[in-house]
Specification:
homodimer; alpha/beta; Peroxisomal Thiolase, Chain A, domain 1; nine-stranded mixed β-sheet; globular
Chain lengths: 387, 387
């Protein structure tokens, strides 16, 4: 029924503390690269979907200046938000507008500027990632605290260790050090991660992703336009799965995995007609190291409870069974909320085109998976790409 | 190419100052009515799209509690925002997800709670409806001020009068007094409107819509599901047009109409295969009275410059050539930002089913149009329905 939809151009700004640029300027860095990558100009874009959580309340309507500055003043009728999964929601929205036949070419722009001090601060907004009235306001639960619940439950049930959590950080910093667009450009040592200060036990400073500014963009097109633009060997969106979960964490049956990941993954695998073992490279949502370990399991890369073992064995490094976050992940590439999901598509599109350089994952089937979570599994997206 | 999409159920909460209910409770009023109207339960809904501008920063992620409370915890992966056109953006997003074949049944929920005092206030957020950095922050332009630019230009070029502006308010209050869900339940007199205090000349208090709380919901379904649910005589989405415009008002060529309306209308008319003269009942975006007069013209209900004459002749009353805002409009029904566009669909769906009661517009062709603007034409949507 649906029309096929391809990714024909991708762009990614430098992630980090971007005091040098306005929101719209950061977005345009990504847009410009995506347009040049696709070999088209703004006039070919029929729909612009801007993904931004809008953590800076002073710019209450972030899509408007972003579209004006990027040259999409006439075709930017929508902003989407799905907390930290906002970027994936933007891609899904652009995808549907093409698959439905409504437009032929759309751009998904993810952008966030979080490092400026505003009220509430980015950290305070993070606390609202659960349920505001009960869990944040009544109990003062911070965002790290929500994931600490999951980490302690996972350690208790499966014997996952603090060392295994730290190993995720070490891997992701290693790859970020090889990615000039990453927020952090340096490797870290396991012992330093373990000695870093406690944020919310068992999560330490090096278990947490940073607060970053940044943007990413992906241009999507129908099959007809792929031919018209003479795009050779495009990357296709094979399937998108989505889910959401209860606002209140206390309403969930357990704390050792995210049902939003499981549901979104099942939907995406089914739509794409592939299985977990077919995936050759993945971007997963590692806002905290425990999140990456749970994702391994919930996405079916290993059995439930064996995520700690997977990282300990090095299976998620390049050369391992399933390389994960070879761009540095949220943990070390950075996590500008709205940009993250689109940035995953940026990395995977380049991997599928064998443009990964020294971070290139060897591919045979050319199937890649992006996993993007909002809040503590309040939102979940899994997007499967193939060449 | 696209699949046909029907509206099979609609709901609308009471609009007004809703100190009695939380955001999610107001949303559920609309959701419950829509489910009952369609004769289905939550388990049939595959996708929930929540439209909310999120003017209350303390609930930074409004879709999460709204979906939890309404019973859509698993299927609410996305919030959309398009300023005051947010409700239409939600309908468009839900439409595309069905037209693309991704899902068969989706709900668009529009909700806003604006009357609570928060930082920034709703009025301060309104000022950001232009360009924050230049026009709001540098010049202190308020939202009423943006529309006052348009009103003075329209008066100067076409001789539109303050009396004609006030006539729009009189009409919309009349119909609101017949609508139990409207914020204002009383008629007003022309002389009182003209004597009301100046907000930003020529706009007076009675030229401005109020700040309201409220919600609306619309359930959309594919043709297959319409048959499966045995929906008799559904209302079909015949076409949706969208547009956006420059962030900075100063970048626009003139101030006597909104190009976002013209572009969105042309797109919608073309998609639906109808002309302005075919439209028998319309909801237009009357955040200020001048906005309704410009909409008459920009939608093609009269020639450019003759909007003032159209209201003066009473042509937009029931019984006139093109009845407009017979539910009270934003002006008197109220304007809870995210809810407004969905509430337009609520009213028109009921009109097309001849459920308008004493406000029923006599119909022959059964073609209706909703026109929803975000900011000062920063966003524009036109949605055409037919039975």
């Amino acid at each position: 029924m649906s029309r096929k939809v391809a990714i024909i151009g991708v762009g990614n700004s430098k992630f980090g503390v971007r005091d040098d640029a306005l929101l719209q300027e950061i977005a345009f860095e990504a847009v410009k690269e995506a347009l040049e990558d696709a070999g088209i100009t703004q006039k070919e874009i029929e729909l612009s979907v801007v993904g931004s959580v809008g953590t800076r309340m002073y710019e209450a309507l972030p899509a408007v200046p972003v579209n004006e500055y990027a040259g999409f003043s006439g075709v930017g009728p929508i902003r989407v938000e799905a907390a930290c999964a906002t970027g994936s929601a933007a891609v899904f929205t652009a995808y549907n507008a093409i698959a439905s036949g409504y437009v032929d070419v759309a751009i998904a722009i993810g952008v966030e500027k979080m490092c400026e001090v505003d009220t509430p601060t980015s950290t305070a907004v993070g606390g609202r990632g659960g349920n505001y009235l009960w869990e944040f306001h009544m109990f003062g639960t911070s965002f790290a605290c929500y994931y600490a619940f999951y980490a302690t439950a996972h350690m208790n049930k499966f014997g996952t260790t603090e060392e295994q959590l730290a190993m995720v950080a070490v891997k992701n910093h290693k790859y970020a050090s090889m990615n000039p667009k990453a927020h952090f450009q340096r490797e870290i040592k396991l012992e330093d991660a373990l000695k870093s200060r406690i944020i919310c036990w068992p999560l330490k400073l090096y278990d947490c992703c940073p607060i970053s500014d940044g943007a990413a963009a992906a241009i999507l097109a129908s099959e007809d336009k792929v031919k018209e633009f003479r795009i050779e060997d495009p990357v296709w969106i094979a399937g998108i799965g989505y889910a959401s979960d209860t606002s209140n964490i206390v309403r969930r049956p357990d704390y050792v995995g995210l049902s939003a990941t499981v549901k979104a993954a099942n939907m995406a695998y089914k739509k794409a007609g592939v299985e977990p073992k077919d995936v050759e490279v993945a971007e997963v949502h590692d806002c905290f190291t425990i999140a990456e370990i749970m994702a391994y399991e919930d996405l079916g890369f290993c059995k439930k409870g064996e995520g700690g073992k997977l990282i300990k064995e090095g299976q998620t490094y390049i050369g391992g069974r399933i390389p994960v976050n070879v761009d540095g992940g949220l943990k070390a590439k950075g996590h500008p909320l709205g940009a993250t999901g689109v940035s995953m598509i940026y990395e995977l599109t380049r991997q599928l085109r064998n443009e990964g350089g020294k971070r290139q994952v060897p591919l045979k089937k050319y199937i890649a998976l992006a996993h993007n979570i909002g809040g503590t599994g309040h939102y979940g997206y899994v997007t499967i790409l193939r060449r």
